[in-house]
Amino acid sequence: MASDDRFSMTTEKYLARHHVLVYMEDAVAQLLEHREENSKINPIKFLCEYFNSVRDGNHTMFREYSYIHATPHNRASFVRLFWKCYRQIGKKGDLLSIQEYHSLLSLLCSDFPFEPVQKTAKIILLDDALDCLISFSDFIYAFQVQFYFEEFIEKSHEMYQSLHQTQRSPRDPVVVPSGSDDTKVHQNSHHPGDGVDATQYFRAIYPLCDRSNFSTPPVNVLKEILFNVPRVSFYGFLMSIAKSERINEHIGRLPSKAELLEGADADLTVQEATIQNHVRKSFGDSKGTHGN
């Protein structure tokens, strides 16, 4: 955000946009909880470490789902945590089921619900064959979009359904955007009415991007995706968002797909390394049948 925008906002708007009260309330609650266990704890030092952890994005491990889900920064930080702890799965080329991905998420957040994982799989598999195995790279970028833009996806799905009711073109092909220049056209094999006019869909979801109470993809990227195809299916639209490098850069927590599996694990915290070693032992020999 530009500095002039920051200084032009009211105090209340600034606090709300950056969810400052969420972190203040949680910091105080955490401090009180730790003081019950150790009465000699230094409050100033504790709060300093807490907010340094928030700033660095190292604050979501083993926290409850309500906290992880509370702010866009928490959501993006949790996605990065998942990547840091489990990227060796991608390096090995293992393919996992959605139940296995949910188990991995539950190691980091014990009450993480199954529904977001199901919705992630629908993005990848286009709402079909949810028992298929999924690669790590496909999963994490789709999961990032589903988790970070959850409210936007829900609202845009409602608008898609509404628009779909008014558009019936059984003989038209449905275009599933690929996120690249070589857009592929597929004849619809599921339902003759699948897919809507892409330009009209953009106009329908455009007002969502002015909303400040939830995260939305950049308007120019949505326009690029939807103006390059005549018709689009809902899950094809989401897949295109998941594959977009510009949207990944906009969120700013995961590396590009080309660099996703590169690099050493020197940046892992002790807790992250412990999780990774546990997964390496658990998935080491048992994933032989899941490889490419």
Automatic annotation (TrEMBL):
It is found in: Cytoplasm, Cytoskeleton, Microtubule organizing center, Centrosome, Centriolar satellite. Gene3D superfamilies: cAMP-dependent protein kinase regulatory subunit, dimerization-anchoring domain. Residues 164-192 are annotated as: Disordered. Its main location: cytoplasm. One of its GO terms (cellular component) is centriolar satellite. It comes from the Eukaryota. The keyword Cytoplasm applies. The keyword Disulfide bond does not apply. InterPro entries: CSTPP1. Keywords: Cytoplasm, Cytoskeleton, Microtubule, Phosphoprotein. Regulator of the tubulin polyglutamylase complex (TPGC) that controls cytoskeletal organization, nuclear shape, and cilium disassembly by balancing microtubule and actin assembly. Regulates the assembly and stability of the TPGC and thereby modulates polyglutamylation of the microtubule, which antagonizes MAP4 binding. Belongs to the CSTPP1 family. This is Centriolar satellite-associated tubulin polyglutamylase complex regulator 1. It comes from Crassostrea virginica (Eastern oyster). The gene is LOC111132052.
